[in-house]
Amino acid sequence: MSTINFSAKEINFKIVYYGPGLSGKTTNLKRIYDQVPGESKGEMVSLATEDERTLFFDFLPLDLGKVNGFKTRFHLYTVPGQVFYNSSRKLILRGVDGIVFVADSAPNRLRANAESLRNLRDNLTEYNLKLSEIPYVIQLNKRDLPDALPVPMIKQVLDPKNSVEMFEAVASEFKGVFEPLRAVSKLVLERVQQRA
Amino acid sequence: MTRLKTPIRRTTSVSYSAVTSQGRAEIAIVESQIFMGSVIFDVQNSNSGAILQPMLEPSLDLYGETFTKVDALLNDLLTKSHARYTIIIDLKGFVLMHSRALWAPKPPSLDSLATLIASNYSANTAIAKLFGEPGFKEMVQQGNEVGTYVEEIGEKALLVTVFDSSAALGRVKLFTRKAVDHIKQVLSESTDEVPQVEFDQNWSDSTEALLDGLFGSGE
């Protein structure tokens, strides 16, 4: 649930990038950091292993700007994708307002995508949350792979009801990186207004 | 205007209704992830009928006179403990308020500090639970020059005291604990009105324009 800080006049939202290991969650944040102008971003923090795998999380604060005197801020997080870091993933989901699920288009990662999505649902349950009730979009990353799975095939596995916005991306080349972030941010803000 | 205030339990999906002078309004709280505390809704009347205004989630009720009093307590803590900075953060890693000693160097990014401390606190609590403990009693880090000491403010927030070698750890602990007690007391006695924030169409349009400005229009 979003946090409002009356003293600092800030409304803060937490967006989490979730997905299987090596699907490109950290790459998304790095590209966002590269592309967002200096005055709109804070420091990026990465807690990673020596071989640059996410150990706990990556963190990037973004300032959207002021509306009605209140600064609107998004805190972006990634989770560690590797299966055995589930305790860390659970902790990062605390207070989540929106989720970008980063799926891997490689044929041998279809099952990992599905398992990660199931893991996301399970972890949200620990906070009494349902994925269907949280602003949520899917990014299909690595579309430049020569053997990338067809979009309908991945969609059939991750979103058979066709209820979630999906974006094709090559995050390493900054293709399709801003679009899912913009979409999930919009959903998060709409939700605040709906609740008002 | 009618104010409804109700405690939230962790697992509930509940609804409440209120009758205002202009008619009946119903409130549904579908997701409740606050562990303890309350959520406040204001029921206002307008031409289009009753408007329910959820106040999002103030992590601590820090505004008005309460804010001023807590700010004074943070400054008092700095003076008495000889610490560099005192920061109140919520458990999601957002900075709620902070204070800096006049002599202290510029602090590092408070967003980064708050996120790392909140995550560290969560990880430590998870470790404690592995051993059947509700949590660890102390969270202190000491480097060659700088250290941090963290105390819980109830179940929603943390008070972080950042100190250096000019301050004794025992003194930092003592005055941080005292400050937490005083802050809890101020919060419990607070009668401040919750400030209003308008989430109207104008707010929606403006935030969308800002999104377009930062990320492109997506078209």
Walk me through the structure:
The complex is a heterodimer of chains A (196) and B (219). By secondary structure, chain A is α/β, with parallel strands linked by helices. Chain A has a single domain, classed as Rossmann fold, CATH 3.40.50. Helix content of chain A is 31%, strand content 28%. The longest helix of chain A is centred in the last third of the chain and has 18 residues. The radius of gyration of chain A is 16 Å and the shape is globular. By secondary structure, chain B is of the alpha+beta class. Chain B folds into two domains: 57 residues, no CATH class; 126 residues, Dynein light chain 2a, cytoplasmic (Beta-Lactamase). Chain B has four helices and ten strands. Chain B has a five-stranded antiparallel β-sheet, sandwiched between helices. In chain B, strands 1-4-5 form a three-stranded antiparallel β-sheet, with no helix packed on it. A two-stranded antiparallel ribbon of chain B has the order 2-3. In chain B, a hairpin with a 2-residue loop joins strand 4 and strand 5. In chain B, helix 1 packs antiparallel against helix 3. The longest helix of chain B has 21 residues. The termini of chain B are far apart. The interface between A and B is large, with 52 and 54 residues.
Question: Gist?
Answer:
Chain A has 196 residues and is α/β, with parallel strands linked by helices. Chain A is built from 5 helices and 8 strands. Chain A has a single domain (3-195), classed as Rossmann fold (3-Layer(aba) Sandwich), CATH 3.40.50.300.
What features would you highlight for this structure?
heterodimer, A: 196 residues, Rossmann fold, 31% helix, 28% strand, B: Beta-Lactamase, 2 domains, three-stranded antiparallel β-sheet, disordered N terminus
